[in-house]
Design a protein that fits this description.
It is built from nine helices and 15 strands. It is of the alpha/beta class and about 300 residues long. The structure holds adenosine-5'-triphosphate (ATP) and zinc ion.
Amino acid sequence: MNQESLFYFKSIDMKLTIAIQKSGRLNKSSLELMSFCGFNLIEGNGRLKTRAENFPVEVLFLRDDDIPGYIRDGVADCGIVGENVLAEKGIENLQVEEKLGFGTCRLSLAIPRETNYAGLTYFQGKRIATSYPEILSSFLKSNNIKAEIHGIGGSVEIAPGIGLSDAICDLVSTGSTLLSNGLKEVETILKSQAVLVANQNLNGEKRDILDRLIFRVRANRQGKKNKYILLNAPNGKIAAITKIIPGIKAPTILPLATEGWSSLHSVVNADDFWDITMKLKKEGAEGILVIPIENMIV
Ligand code: ATP
Ligand code: ZN
C-alpha cells in the first residue's frame, strides 16, 4: 500500500470523540443535541461508547466530573459539561467552544430559613458543606471570609439538618430542593450552563470535524431562538408591518390571489413573538402563523 492510500484509510477512520454525561441532568439534552445535529447514534443502552452511522463522531458516556480530565488526557476530544464542573476542576488546555443554553443553574450559598442574614460576614467562622470546595474557597478568600469548608460528595442540602454544617454551597435551579430542606438562598457565587468544551490541541482533521459539529450546533441554537412568521395583510399596511417584523434582511412579500393583499414572511425572536403578533393584529394582519425553526444560518 503506498503512502497516499495509507493516508486515505487513516482519514476515513478518523473520528472525533465526544464525551457526554452517562446519566443525570445533562444526559437527555446532550443526546437531543446530537440528534438535532443530525447524528444517527447506534443504539446501545448502558454502553460506554457508541458512534454515529452518518458522521465521524464517537460518543463516550461518562460521569460529568470525569469529562474535563478525560479531554485533557486525550481519551475524549471534546465533551458536554456544566461550567460549574469546569470551574471546580480548573483544568488547563481546555477551550469552551460553545455555550449550549441547557443545564442552567447557579452555585449558591444557602442557610437555614429562619436565620437572619445581614451579608457575607455571616459566614465568618461558619461550617459550610459543599461539593465545590475549590470554587467556594476562592470565593471566600476573595471576600476575606474565613470559614470551615466540608467537602462532601452529594446530598449537600441535608448537611445543616443533620448538624454537619451551618450553611451549604450547592447548585440551585428552581430552589425547590432548598425549600424542602428548610434552607434559603442568600448569595450566588457562579452562574452556569452546559458548554461544549474541547482539547485545545486537536489535530487538523479532528478540528475540522469539530468545526462541522459546532456549525450545526450554532444553526440549531439560532433556530431555537427564533420563529418563522407568516401573515396576510392589506398592501397599504406593508410598510408599517415591515417595521414590526424586519427579519434577517427584510421580509419576503408575495402577492395574494386576492387583489390588494399580500403575504409577508419573516423571522422573529422566539421570546417576543406573542407581543409582536399582537402588534401585527392591530396593524390589520390576518391569518398569522408562527412556526418553529429547526436550523437557522445567518
Ligand atoms: P454524575 O453521576 O454524572 O457525576 P451528578 O450527580 O454529579 O452526576 P447531576 O445532578 O446530574 O450531576 O448534574 C449534572 C449537571 O447539571 C451539574 O453539574 C450542573 O451543571 C447541571 N445542573 C442544572 N441544574 C442543576 C441542579 N438543580 N442541581 C444540580 N445540577 C444541576
Ligand atoms: Zn457529577
